[in-house]
Amino acid sequence: MAFTFKLNTCNPIFFTITNTSSYDPLLKNARRSGFLSFRFSASTTSSGSTAAEAFEEGELERPKWAGETPLSRLVGALISIKPLFSVLKLGARQVFISTAEKTSIPWREMTKEILDSDVYKELESIENPAIVYPDYYLNPFHAYDEGNLSWLAAAEVEAATMSMVRRAIPYASSLDEANQIVRGNWLDAIEKHHQQYSADFSIRDILDIGCSAGVSTGYIADKYPSAKVTGLDLSPYFLSVAQYKEKKRNQRKNPISWIHANGEDTGLPSESFDLVSIAYVFHECPERAIRNIVKESFRLLRPGGTIAITDNSPKSKILQELPPVLFTLMKSTEPFLDEYYLTDLERVMKDTGFANVQTVLTDPRHRTVTATVPY
């Protein structure tokens, strides 16, 4: 018996899996559930919802496609079929690029500009040869076989981040407007929390854990221009791009520092920061890494310091109602997505010792969780 899988992208792909007798029940269930004859759409939204509707929370604690549900197991079983997984990764890549370029983000041009530049010269000054990468970090992420440890991933990350923002705010008239909502609400949540619980001292030292190519780090540095800002990441390629792009911009009063280190064990001095930011990192981490990074953040913060975590919201109505094709695509490129959604982040933070734990939906898809190190 042979099964033909059709991936409807800009250039249709046909894929045949032979000897599928062991998968027959699975494939029948998948067909009934709408998984087969996938149609990948580059549309940024499935509902055309307004801003007020988009911020609405769903009725569930987490999406029904996450965790130990029948639907989640079905998706996991499909992804475990290696030939099918390879096709999904290819489809994911095509969708990411197509989605970006249909919203006026020049993905290919931005990537080429980085890859044709002198960015490679930054690696020697950035890379820490003593780093031992944790096992989970060596997994494929975002349709890259090398995960975050490649020049291609580093060159594409800014365009991918822009695309993420446009998907989050599909009703925005421009990328700038979308960023004003996504980044603006995130930074406002940080400021309000710190003013409410730590108003007696200013933010002087900031650490951005998992800073990637420095996009979030730059927003924080712009928000707090008098602070000393440090971006920390496990990928020396991402950090090389961050340092290269930062050198090209107008010189800051306080230049950003970049550190190649593990957020679970940074090696930085205790009580040396007033703000630790972790932006769009935890959905790529197993639960043990999430717990370790939260614990390390607690150690690094001064009494009265603020932690701010922004990432996918399990209670987002939009994420809970994603069509089967889209959440299958998402899970095929995010190996630890289930662990993230099953982790009670607020409880982890409280158990670590953080106080004043607060969660707010800062855009239709993402939450910002803030907390304070007690005095």
TrEMBL record:
Residues 206-305 form the Methyltransferase domain. GO terms for molecular function: methyltransferase activity; S-adenosylmethionine-dependent methyltransferase activity. Transmembrane segments: none annotated. Gene3D superfamilies: Vaccinia Virus protein VP39 (3.40.50.150). GO terms for biological process: alkaloid metabolic process. It comes from the Eukaryota. It holds the Pfam family Methyltransf_25. PANTHER family: METHYLTRANSFERASE, METHYLTRANSFERASE DOMAIN-CONTAINING PROTEIN. This is Methyltransferase domain-containing protein.
